[in-house]
Amino acid sequence: MAREKSSKDNAKALFHSLRSAYAATPVNLKIIDLYVGFAVFTALIQVVYMASVGSFPFNSFLSGVLSCVGTAVLAVCLRIQVNKENKEFKDLPPERAFADFVLCNLVLHLVIMNFLG
Amino acid sequence: MAAVANMPVSDLLKSFKLKTKQQELLIRVSILCLVYILAFITRLFSVLRYESMIHEFDPYFNYRTTLYLTQNGFYDFWNWFDYESWYPLGRIVGGTLYPGLMVTAALIYRILHFLRFAVHIREVCVLTAPFFASNTTLVAYFFGKEIWDTGAGLVAAILIAVCPGYISRSVAGSYDNEGVAIFALLFTFYLFVKAINTGSLAWSLASAFGYFYMVSAWGGYVFIINLIPLYVLVLLITGRYSMRLYVAYNCMYVLGMLLAMQIRFVGFQHVQSGEHMAAMGVFFLMQVFYFLDWVKHMLSDTKLFQAFLRITVTCAVAVGSIALGLGMLSGYISPWTGRFYSLLDPTYAKDHIPIIASVSEHQPTAWSSFMFDFHILLFLFPAGLYFCFKRLSDATIFIVMYGLTSMYFAGVMVRLILVATPAVCLISAIAVSATVKNLTVLLRSKNKGVQTGSTKGSSSSKASSKALLDQSQPFQKNGAIALLFGAFYLLSKYATHCTWVTSEAYSSPSIVLAARGAHGSRVIFDDYREAYFWLRQNTPPDAKVMSWWDYGYQITAMGNRTVIVDNNTWNNTHIATVGRAMSSYEDEAIEIMRSLDVDYVLVVFGGVTGYSSDDINKFLWMVRIGGGVFPVIKEPDYLVNGEYRVDKGAAPKMLNCLMYKLCYYRFGEMLTEYGKPPGYDRARGVEIGNKDIKLEHLEEAFTTSNWIVRIYKVKPPNNRW
Q: Is B363 helix (H, G, I), strand (E, B) or coil?
């Protein structure tokens, strides 16, 4: 009984401290996180759809999922490069990071369009 | 003018009013230019000795497809179905080749034509490999600069320019995938290491494109897609990970995987094949790892974090292993295929896949091959490893892993010495450069004289110490000079060895044979091309030729006739059918040949010239491969007491099988050597057993001037009474 209660307390404390720590992050990073969440959510919807109707044009399924996963990953890379707390990237101007992000996304979506079939 | 010539080099440079940095740049650029030219011209031996032609077997297929590409355009090439090989099955060429090499050569051809140089596509094909070898030296320079410093880069460039391990597959005329693939491999690795060092998305994108080029060029890209995840794993485990690693690997993996799937031959392997699962596993592991890192950074309380860690890790491991297990059990994720599995278990191919075991390039490597192909690099490699371990960074860890894994694979299969060569050259360059640097520092210390100790070993021996020697360390200086002379001697011996090896061993076109006549004059045997051109000019255009699969590509490229099996070896049963036909008695063989619509049979015979790579020496492999599919062919039937013989004591099945009859037809009357009886086989060194051969269903159509290639016509069935 005590252990159950303490684990529930633990989970609550965990949740609260995470929430408070996250609230402290700057707004631009929160926007990027929202975008990442949206992309992963879209990928999950596609996987559920594939599980229900089958994967026949497999290249289309792959290109859909990989475009979501790809853009999520690139957004996380952008977040890493823009985050002021990362000492390694303090010399990198955020405009350059964003330009790289746009370029990689462009290449990603061009390849996806070729692969879509 | 004479006064200018007498001035030493440094004074000459000073007269140009250059600063030291610019002098150094000038020296570096001129060294690189010379190395570029050297890498190109050392590969031209066979072009100068024979003519500008394509060598070996596989390059003929590549040449034929490049010809088709330049004549018909990319769309037709990408969707090409070839009727002229693997009769009656045909081959989907567009979906079963790696297009990188052909597209590269076609691009160079179009650029040259745009500049109004009207070269033939064959010249472009012959010289593609040396051109890319020169480019590889440049990439090696930049890679060495990235890992260590510019001195190591220069030494790496010169070492890889002449290294026999690389030259063996990139001479002029060797128009094969490896010529371009090694450039792509080193380029991808360089871009990836650059991406890890800078953490920039742009460099990761470039490495993804480099990976795409590698996938389009060669099946050995599997090495890259397994080495890089292994490297990431090592960095994660040893705690050397950083944010740059995340950016570099993820961008490269996702974009590289997508680009690679555009090649039809590769298809969906990146998500379905067991060989590519390591990369995906590490990808997911990284997400979990960095997510946990981020949460730990956000949470200030470690106890809470431990709880969170436990939950997440158990969930992730459970989900991952369930997914992997389901995938492998249901067969969705295919296991490692034979070619790559035999790298992990070298005995696998001999027992299960005779076709892979029969290729001489797939045999394990002997020490002599290592010495032959690497020379002094063999002991400079461990020295370089020592230096790398002294100065560990992300880049040196990478090159150490590349070196060790590629050396393991080079030990398993001779052909893979090629993949190990860039790593060995780079690591040896580190050893040479670091040693020479340390020695010249000793020479220059406490000495105000002008020293020309450059970081390149072969020119530093000229460094002589001035009279103002520091009295407390005379031994050190003399020792340093002696060691520098030793280094210069070793490197010059290396250069001599490499040139000798290139000239003697790796410059033969295989399709034209040469020998020394009785008075030392050179005798050329051009029998192969004689036979293929006879086929081209004297047979109907829709004739089908049956031969062993080695010669298929050459027959379609030069003879322009349909073949039954060729070097692609994608259909083992079809090859086994041909093997069965060659090993059966003539009556059984004619049934098989009639069912395959065969019009001509081509065999290669070395008994008159002593040529040892002929079909009689390959015959046991035909029996093994045929027997692997058709149990009616049993290998012991052809052996006597386990011994393979063709003389009087040979097995009766051997003396009467189709291959024996076709090779030795009319050979019993032939006098091949002074003092030996007629029918003396010079390649086996015995007198043949069955001299009186009669052919019932075939007739001799053509035998080349030295009896190397023999062509027989299949007679139509007799009229019925």
A: coil
A86 to chain B: nearest residue by CA? B243
Q: Which of A17, A78, A111 sits opposite B304 (nearest CB)?
A: A17
- Write down the residue that tokens 């700057």 correspond to: A26
- Contact assessment for residue B255 and residue A108, using Cβ atoms and an 8 Å cutoff: yes
| Residue B544 pLDDT | 94
Is pLDDT at B332 greater than 80 in this prediction? no
Residues with Cβ within 8 Å of residue B200, at least 6 apart in sequence: A92, A100, B247
Confidence check: pLDDT of B451 > 60 = no
Identify the pLDDT of residue B517: 79
Task: Tell me the whole-structure pTM to 2 decimals.
Answer: 0.89
CA distances from B647 to B86, B621, B638 (A): 34, 19, 12
Tell which residue, B341, B336, B107, B339, has the closest CA to residue B213: B107
Q: Note the pLDDT of residue B293.
A: 86
Give the distance, in angstroms, between the CA of residue B473 and the centroid of all CA atoms in the same chain. Answer: 50
CB-nearest partner of B205 from A10, A103, A114? A103
Sheet containing B544-546: give its strands across.
Answer: B562-563, B544-546, B600-604, B709-714, B698-703
In DSSP terms, B516 is beta-bridged to B522
Count of Cβ atoms closer than 10 Å to residue B27 Cβ: 17
Nearest CA in chain A to B270: A62
Which chain A residues are Cβ-neighbours of B196 within 8 angstroms?
none
ipTM over 0.85: yes
What's the CA gap between B284 and B291, in Å, rounded?
11
